[in-house]
Design a protein that fits this description.
680 residues, 17% helix, transmembrane, membrane
């Protein structure tokens, strides 16, 4: 995820303790079967584990510049391929050598900035050169490659030779595997007597109000399009590249509990079906190979769990955590932490493949964040070394303490692609990525900034350490006892309660209290996709199976709904894929505010702002400092839940009994008057 992309740079504090799908701790190797050529550049950011605070802003800008240079060079490489290709010498002269020159200059500026504030780093100049990695044949091993299922490409270019997907840079059919063919994962380690067995859930919606941008305030603060791919945002409603800590603390939130202003974000998932979203002409969108119909999640579950060996301590306010590696395709698996699965099969997790789910089963992305903190810093120079994963036995590294582990589960109504014809009949799906990362599933990643108020964080820690299952608005599911159940107390009864899972986070997924169908804090709202409530913006997304189809084990894997109207601020705009067909350049806003340098010490984090009131006021879909790549669909463009409107047929069905009653009453009155007349 760090600047420069590239070579493997393993880090014990950032490693998810995994190899290439075999559970080993090996960090060598790269993803095979790219299906097309790409550019592999050494990862400069991973080498910078100690950057003085005074140089941090300059270094972040130069790392972002390295990313931009790599993306631009990859664009040239694609264009050359579409034009009929070039020989190796020509590619070196026109693309690779100029890229090395630009990187050499940028790395020099970075070293100078560090030298002015501290000790000049050694060896950075050796990281300037990049390698052209040739394509390794077709996506499925027989020369077949995926292609857009319908329509033209979003960026307007024809498909690159040997390429795939709507943007011409992936995915390929070898990126997918039948979930039924995957072996179940190992069980979690046994809990010990000092374990923290409880869980705490926060409900922040599914981004139905459409908050997207291609920034990354953690990795590239103050840089527009620093991510080079689009993110879904839930929780904090003011997350842009230019958001200061104070902006985040004072922002509105989509979370049910207004004490949670944390920001949760991840790359969007798109269907490669020919749809041209409004970012078709935007950096981070179609111009960088991120094309197709953005899929709004069916469900998002945010659960904080404990540690199998010890009690947890509170997260420091404004703690930043990145899990996974957005550049794992070229970096290797050292920091990768992707987990893909299907509902009903969540004991089987995939790292470097997308799942093909059976009819009636939904695609699931699960992120298990680092759960050990160094006790001092809210961030680090490479955004990783201040936090760590627990070991296989649940123990934190020396000098680190256990904190609540965020387990993020995102569910999508997506049909299994027709890989036999390259996604032409049923479209492929893929995450947004840096253009040279080719939409590989291993590049999946999640980002989190803790903006819980101190009181709510204290309740979370108490809940987890006392073995209770708690949810939004103070819901409390009671004591978990020995950790084997979800409690028998009151509360919402539907809060997901996964057990703590040290290591790579690819073990058993969150489960929910059986029989729960209502979302936290709203007994009247059904589970998304159960036929009782229409998910906002899902009208253009084909659901897998029919209404009667049930995923294996679905009762055990259901989780709290996040679609209730009163649970998350909404704008009138909708984020449903396919609701817009072009990018409106007039929506772009030029940032006028520069990012402010921030200290990474936990002691220097701003004091919590006053707790927000309990009223849920709709929040703006973007801050005033929206970047040029940020957008929200036009007002009134979206579809609202049908349950909140009612059709003409429904209205008639409700009125006709009353009409008959009126007629009967009038008939009775007429007969009564006539009878009186006959009597006289």
């Amino acid at each position: 995820m760090l600047g420069g992309g590239g070579l493997v740079a393993a880090n014990v504090y950032a490693s998810a303790s995994e190899g290439w799908g075999d559970g080993s701790t090996t960090t060598s190797g790269q993803v095979l079967s790219s299906g097309m050529a790409t550019i592999d550049c050494p990862d400069v950011g991973s080498r910078l584990t100690d950057v003085p605070d005074g140089a941090r802003a300059d270094v972040d800008r130069q790392l972002a510049a390295l990313d931009q240079q790599t993306a631009a060079a990859y664009g040239q490489l694609r264009a050359a391929g579409q034009a009929g290709g070039q020989d190796a010498d020509s590619v070196d002269d026109s693309i690779m050598n100029p890229l090395k020159e630009k990187r050499t200059e940028t790395i020099g500026k970075m070293a100078d900035a560090i030298d002015r504030a501290g000790e000049r780093p050694e060896g950075l100049d050796d990281l300037a050169g990049c390698t052209l990695r040739p394509g390794e044949g077709g996506g499925n091993g027989d020369g077949a490659t995926a292609a857009p299922s319908t329509g033209s490409q979003q960026g307007g270019a024809s498909e690159a030779p040997g390429g795939a997907g709507q943007g011409g840079n992936g995915p390929v059919v070898s990126d997918y595997v039948d979930i039924a063919s995957v072996q179940p994962d190992a069980q979690n380690p046994p809990e010990q007597s000092g374990a923290s067995r409880g869980s705490f859930a926060s409900d922040c919606g599914v981004n139905a109000n459409g908050l997207f941008n291609s920034d990354n305030v953690i990795v590239a603060p103050g840089v527009t399009n620093g991510a080079h791919h689009f993110h879904d945002y839930i929780g904090n409603q003011s997350n842009t590249a230019f958001a200061s800590d104070e902006d985040l603390a004072n922002a509105k939130t989509s979370c049910v509990d207004q004490g949670d202003k944390s920001t949760y974000y991840w790359p969007v998932v798109r269907l490669q079906n020919g749809t041209q979203e409004r970012d078709a002409g935007s950096p981070g969108g179609g111009t960088e190979g991120n094309a197709g119909q953005i899929v709004t999640p069916k469900q998002v579950t945010l659960t904080f769990v404990g540690n199998p060996r010890e009690k947890v301590t509170a997260m420091p306010r404004l703690l930043r955590i990145i899990t996974g590696d957005a550049k794992a395709f070229v970096n290797g698996p050292g920091n990768a932490n992707a987990s893909w699965s299907c509902t009903g099969f969540e004991n089987r997790q995939l790292k470097d493949k997308y799942p093909l789910c059976p009819k009636g089963s939904d695609v699931v992305r699960t992120f298990r964040f680092q759960s050990c903190w160094d006790g001092r810093n809210i961030d680090s120079a490479n955004h990783r070394t201040h936090v760590a994963f627990a070991g296989a036995d649940g123990a934190c590294p020396a000098g680190f303490r256990a904190i609540p582990q965020l387990v993020q589960r995102i569910v999508y109504d997506i049909d299994a692609p027709s890989v036999q014809d390259g996604g032409r009949t049923v479209p492929l799906f893929a995450v947004d990525s840096f253009p040279e990362q080719l939409h590989k599933p291993v590049t999946d990643h999640g980002d989190f900034i803790n903006v819980f108020d101190e009181d709510l964080m204290g309740k979370m820690v108490d809940c987890i350490n006392s073995g209770r299952t708690c949810g939004p608005d103070g819901g409390d599911g009671g004591d978990n006892g020995d950790g084997g159940g979800n409690g028998t107390g009151g509360g919402d009864g539907s809060t997901a309660s996964p057990t703590a899972s040290p290591g790579d986070g690819a073990t058993a997924a969150p489960t929910a209290s059986s029989g729960a169908t209502a979302g936290p804090g709203d007994d009247a709202t059904g589970e998304p996709g159960d036929g009782n409530t229409a998910e906002p913006g899902d009208g253009n997304t084909t659901e897998p199976g029919d209404d009667s189809a049930t995923a294996p084990g679905d009762d055990e894997t259901s989780a709290p709904t996040a679609s209730a109207d009163d649970q998350a601020p909404r704008t009138e705009a909708s984020t449903a894929p396919g609701r817009t067909t072009r990018h409106d350049k007039g929506d772009k806003a030029t940032p006028v505010k520069s990012a402010e340098p921030r200290s990474t010490s936990a002691d220097s984090a701003p004091a919590p702002a006053a707790s927000a009131s309990g009223s849920r006021t709709p929040a703006s879909s973007a801050s005033d400092q929206a970047t040029a790549a940020a957008y929200a669909p036009p007002a009134g463009a979206g579809t609202e839940p049908q349950a909140s409107r009612g059709s003409l047929a429904e209205t008639g069905a409700q009125l006709w009994p009353a009409a008959i009653g009126v007629l009967l009453a009038l008939s009775g009155l007429f007969m009564l008057v006539r009878a009186k007349r006959l009597r006289y």
